[in-house]
Amino acid sequence: MTRLTFTVSAISVVAYLLPALAHGFNFGSPPFSLKRCVRAFGSRRKMVGGMVGDGTVSETAHPYVLKKRNPFDVHVYYDGPEAEAEAMALREKMMEKFRFMRFYNPRGRPIGPHPVPMWEADFGGYENRHRWDEVRTFLERGHGDLSVLIHPHSMDGDYADHTRNALWAGAPLKLRIQGWERA
Question: What are the φ/ψ torsions at residue 145 (nearest 5 degrees)?
Answer without folding.
Answer: -95, 10
